[in-house]
Automatic annotation (TrEMBL):
SUPFAM superfamilies: Bacterial luciferase-like (SSF51679). InterPro entries: Luciferase-like_dom, Luciferase-like_sf, SsuD_RutA_monooxygenase. Residues 14-233 form the Luciferase-like domain. This is Alkanesulfonate monooxygenase SsuD/methylene tetrahydromethanopterin reductase-like flavin-dependent oxidoreductase (Luciferase family). The keyword Oxidoreductase applies. It comes from the Bacteria.
């Protein structure tokens, strides 16, 4: 199982030098990917710009958009951004797409929330057509630059439930799930759904990616981790956010080792560690644990 690290873009201590510093550290460490997610009405830096910076200062790890809320954006604009990121990373890009869960972001971008699942299906089809060099409109020119990656940019589905996974089996190369607390049952549930849906669609076995919140190597790691999770999940409402945050416990090396072992046993091909702090000591601690698995 491969192990990637997300940029700590959602952490409250994210600083101007965090993107480049962490991207370089991830590339130098025992990790498989550097990733960033999309959120608009929050304090985080923008996803595409962050990934472009990460692509420019890394050489080895894959660069992952995780998750790109595709129904919020015109597919032609996304196609140009995907092609640019794939070129900047010399063909190391992976894209996970989904519908998101924040009405505030849709409103901020002037995009309707209605029919977002169907719009995702349609947008992925259009995105693939554009990335294959199709014209932006009848009689128009293609959207450039085209990706350089042999075989095209992998597209994963940020899907968790049965219906979403079943829809994704028609167009995705795999799934990118998430377990807030890193519970084995969450990994197993999504992976089982994906295997069954892809088999029912007559397609080869999907790539199975997941992730979870963690915080190591800093003082008061567990309180900081749970405060981070509650703040991040605030869009769910204060009571639910607090309840979910209370279950988040990957705040020491032993717990991280156990959670990684459980994710591997559940069939994950890759797990993405999502840090609750931008303190570089956290990245050092993650690297030590992951390096010991080799």
């Amino acid at each position: 199982m491969q192990i990637g690290v997300a940029l700590p873009q959602m952490a409250p201590d994210y600083a101007p030098d965090t993107t480049v510093r962490w991207a370089r550290g991830i590339d130098a460490g025992p990790f498989s990917s550097v990733s960033a997610g999309e959120r608009v009405t929050f304090t985080n830096p923008e996803m595409v710009a962050s990934l472009a910076a990460a692509a420019a200062v890394t050489e080895r790890v894959r660069v992952m958009a995780n998750v790109w809320v595709l129904p919020q954006h015109p597919p032609a604009m996304v196609a140009q951004q995907v092609g640019t990121l794939d070129q900047l990373s010399a063909g190391r890009l992976t894209v996970a797409v989904g519908v998101g869960g924040r009405e505030e972001d849709y409103r901020a971008l002037g995009s309707p929330l209605e029919r977002r699942h169907q719009r995702l299906d349609e947008a992925v089809a259009e995105l693939r057509r554009l990335l294959d060099g199709g014209p932006a409109y009848d009689g128009g020119e293609p959207v450039g630059p085209l990706p350089v990656q042999e075989g095209g940019v992998p597209i994963l589905a940020g899907a968790l439930g049965p219906r979403a996974v079943a829809r994704a089996a028609r167009w995705a190369d795999g799934v990118s799930g998430f377990s807030v607390a890193g519970h084995r049952r969450d990994f197993e549930s999504v992976n089982r759904l994906a295997d069954e849906a892809w088999a029912a669609a007559g397609r080869p076995a999907p790539t199975k990616v997941s992730g979870f919140f963690c915080c190591l190597g800093v003082d008061d790691a567990l309180p900081r981790l749970q405060a981070f999770a509650e703040r991040y999940l605030g869009f769910l409402g204060p009571e639910l956010a607090a309840a979910l945050a209370a279950e988040v416990e990957v705040a020491d090396a032993d717990r991280l080792r156990r959670t990684l072992a459980e994710a591997e046993a559940a069939g994950c091909d890759e797990v993405v560690l999502v840090p609750a702090t931008a303190d570089p000591a956290c990245l050092d601690a993650l690297a030590e644990v992951v390096g010991q698995r080799r």
